[in-house]
Specification:
The chain has 318 residues and is an alpha+beta fold. The chain has helices spanning 2-30, 34-49, 98-104, 165-182, 196-210, 250-253, 257-265, 280-283, 297-305, 310-315, and strands at 138-142, 150-151, 160-164, 188-191, 237-241, 271-275, 288-294. A hairpin with a 7-residue loop joins β1 and β2 (150-151). α4 crosses α7.
Length: 318
C-alpha cells in the first residue's frame, strides 16, 4: 500500500513538473523579441519628440541685420598715385682724379691701374729714353712666326726679332691668332727692338731717302723718330705686316686684312694701335697702321674701346 502511494506521488510530481515546463515554454513564445522591443521604444521616442502638426506655429521674423559697407568715393575724385621714389644722385668725381678727368671728357671711369708700372712707359719726342736704356731681358721670336716658341737667347740657326721678354708670349699669341684666323703663310715682324744706335742710323737713312732733316713729313708729323725718342728702344712694340714691304705707307697698308684684323683684336692680347689715324696732333707721329704697342689687356681694352692714344690715356692719371 505504501509503495503504491509513493508511485502516485512520483507520477503527480512528474505531471506538475511537465505542466511547469509547458508553462515556461508558452510564456517564452508569447513574449516579444528584444529587437522588436527596441524598435518599438525608438518609435515611441520619435513620436514623442515630434509635436502634433496643429501645435506648430511659425517663428516671428526678426528685422534684417544692417551690413557694414565701405563708403563709396565720389566718381569725380581722381585716383591718387604714390610719389616717385627719388634715386640717390651719382657721386660727382673729384676733378683732379682719373675719374674726374675722364668725366670732363665724356669718358667712362678709367681702370684702376698703377700708371707708373712698366707697361705704361711713355716714349715720344717729349719723353726720350736714355742712350743706354734697354730691356732687362730679351725674348727672341721667330721673324715670320714659322715657329711659335719664345727663346731667351740668341739662336744663330734661325732669324729672330727680339722684344722685352715680358711681352714676348703675348706678341706670339697675337700674331699667331692673326695668322691662323686669316690663313696667312707668314706674319712678318719687320721691326721690334732697336737700340739707341740703331735708331740713330735708321733716322739718318729715312731722312736722306725722303729729303728731310727733322724726320717729319710735310704736315709736321714724324715719319721717323730721333734716337732716344722711338718706342722701339723700349722693346715693347712691333711693326707687323704680312710680308716684307719697303717703304711702309699707311695708304697701302691700312685696308689690308691683316692690319684690319689686328686693329680690331689687338686689345684682346694687351696691345693697342699706337699711332691711330686722327691722333697725329697728340702723338706727333703720322698714322701707322702696322705699329702695335703692349700695355696689358686692362688698359688696352679701355684705350681701344674709347678711341684714345697712349698719351691721352696716361694724361687721365697725371
Amino acid at each position: 500500500m505504501k509503495i503504491f502511494i509513493r508511485i502516485i506521488r512520483v507520477i503527480l510530481g512528474l505531471v506538475l513538473l511537465a505542466a511547469f515546463a509547458y508553462g515556461l515554454y508558452t510564456f517564452a513564445q508569447a513574449a516579444p523579441k528584444s529587437g522588436d522591443i527596441m524598435s518599438q521604444l525608438e518609435g515611441e521616442e520619435t513620436i514623442a519628440a515630434a509635436p502634433p502638426a496643429a501645435q506648430l506655429t511659425p517663428a516671428p521674423q526678426s528685422a534684417p541685420v544692417q551690413q557694414d559697407t565701405p563708403e563709396t568715393l565720389p566718381a569725380d575724385l581722381p585716383e591718387t598715385t604714390p610719389p616717385p621714389v627719388e634715386q640717390a644722385p651719382e657721386p660727382t668725381p673729384l676733378p683732379d682724379t682719373p675719374e674726374g678727368r675722364a668725366a670732363a671728357l665724356g669718358l667712362p671711369a678709367p681702370p684702376n691701374v698703377d700708371i707708373d708700372s712698366w707697361e705704361y712707359l711713355l716714349v715720344n719726342a717729349d719723353n726720350p729714353l736714355p742712350e743706354d736704356y734697354e730691356p732687362e731681358q730679351f725674348g727672341y721670336i721667330n721673324l715670320t712666326l714659322s715657329e711659335r716658341d719664345v727663346q731667351t737667347y740668341f739662336n744663330p740657326n734661325r732669324v729672330d726679332s727680339r722684344v722685352d721678354l715680358r711681352i714676348a708670349q703675348a706678341l706670339v699669341d697675337f700674331c699667331g691668332a692673326a695668322k691662323d684666323e686669316l690663313g696667312l703663310d707668314i706674319v712678318y715682324l719687320t721691326s721690334c727692338y732697336r737700340s739707341y744706335a740703331s735708331q740713330a742710323e735708321n733716322f739718318k737713312r729715312v731722312c736722306i731717302n725722303n729729303g728731310i732733316a727733322d724726320g717729319k713729313d710735310k704736315d709736321g708729323f714724324y715719319i721717323t723718330m730721333p734716337a732716344g725718342c722711338s718706342e722701339h728702344q723700349s722693346g715693347m712694340c712691333a711693326d707687323i705686316i704680312d710680308k716684307w714691304r719697303n717703304p711702309l705707307r699707311a695708304a697701302d697698308l691700312k685696308d689690308l686684312p691683316l692690319e684690319v684684323w689686328m686693329a680690331e683684336h689687338c686689345q684682346d692680347y694687351g696691345f693697342i694701335l699706337r699711332f691711330p689715324e686722327g691722333k697725329e696732333q697728340i702723338t706727333g707721329v703720322m698714322y701707322e697702321p702696322w705699329h702695335f704697342r703692349y700695355v696689358g689687356e686692362t688698359a688696352a681694352k679701355y684705350i681701344m674701346e674709347n678711341g684714345l692714344c697712349l698719351e691721352e690715356f696716361i694724361s687721365l692719371y697725371k
